[in-house]
Amino acid sequence: MAALIAGLTMGVVGLTMGGIGMVPVAKSFIPDKSDRTTTVRIGVGTSTNVADTPGGNTPGVALFDVMGRTVGSARGSKKNIGDGSFKDIKIVSDNGVQSQYVSISKGGIDGLCIAYITVTWPDGGKYLFSGDVGAACGAHWYASQTIFQESQPGYKPRCMWIDGNDSNGITTEGFGVHITDFEATNERTAAYNQTLDLMCGSPPRFMLYDHITSDDSLPYFNPPLEFVPQTLLDVDPAKVIGVPGSNHDDKKKPSRRRLRYRQTPTTGTPSLNTATPQSAMAGRLITSNDPRTSAVELCESEHSLGPDHVSFAENKFCDMKTKKLWPLCARASDTSACFDATSNTMRAGLRRRDGTGEPDVPEKNYHTVTNWNQPRN
């Protein structure tokens, strides 16, 4: 925490082994200020574009001040942001106002998995929102290659999906966030962890939308929230949980979707959606020896969505279509059903003469195999 006190890093709300927690991020990770300009950086985990140049469409961005008034916006486009890359979107305002509310909306029909957004105000204020929040609040999500911390091994956030249509099984067009509410302290993240509705059950704080564009307004807290100094705890949680927020009548309102909470051991919050999404990337496989990307976590989450995944650290393969875990084949003489990470195919196990025994295995054929391996020491 010494670096936090020294002002070199900032705390961000993320998902840790104990649930929702504070993740330190170097302030150098966020763009520097620019006169009368708010810079929004979109960090991409992966996409559903399987063309020669991978990546997804650049999303639209809209900014609003503390009272929900429009600061400025930038429409989405079909220009790609490469997988694992980022794009800075600059929005100029005459008075250099602080943009506390941010909406992110689809830019085209390619699904885009957003690992993070950062916001730099004209006065130098810096904020970061992690895809972990979306994963905790029930968004479709996947693992990402983004590393927050400069020191090894670093922290990898999950990424959350948005899309311009439902063809990939992604039903979210965008989201709105009160960016200042995700500056982390130990006390704030503990409160979010204990009461998930403080983070996920408040449309002005964070909301997923089935239909939203950069022309739509966002709900805002009216009057503005009050926080306890230093800890940043909500003075009155009753003004947060379940509060729909105010909205300006001169702009369109986006179509909200019902938040689908993600089950976590610490909160015990039940999931409100029992449907398991199908893989959006049939024919794609990601392999990794990095323990920070987990095939087990992907298969155990009903909201994860993306390519099949091999974790050499866990010795597991996750079939994302069926959400079934399989062991990796250890040797050629294996008699149990397993995934062969050399040929990238399933290997059937032995059956008894009466036809019982090992289960049937799915047929796997991949046109794209991506290696996320970390260098071995």
Question: Which SSEs are present, and which pair or pack?
Answer:
Layout: H1 2-6, E1 9-16, E2 19-26, E3 37-47, E4 56-58, E5 60-64, E6 70-74, E7 77-81, E8 86-92, E9 101-105, E10 112-120, E11 126-130, H2 131-136, E12 141-142, E13 159-162, E14 174-178, H3 186-194, H4 197-200, E15 206-211, E16 255-256, E17 284-288, H5 295-300, E18 308-311, E19 316-319, E20 324-327, E21 338-340, E22 345-347, E23 368-371
Parallel strand pairs: 17-18, 17-23
Antiparallel strand pairs: 1-2, 3-8, 3-10, 4-7, 5-6, 5-9, 9-14, 10-11, 10-13, 12-13, 14-15, 15-16, 18-19, 19-20, 21-22
Q: What's the short version?
A:
By secondary structure, the chain is mainly β.
Number of helical segments with 4 or more residues: 5
Radius of gyration, in Å, reads 21 Å
Distance from N terminus to C terminus (CA atoms, Å) equals: 28 Å
- How many runs of DSSP E, i.e. beta strands? 23
From the structure provided, what is the oligomeric state, counting identical versus distinct chains? single chain
> Would you identify the regions where 5 or more consecutive residues have pLDDT less than 50?
1-6, 257-279
Shape: elongated
Structural class: mainly beta
- Helix/strand order, N-terminal first: HEEEEEEEEEEEHEEEHHEEEHEEEEEE
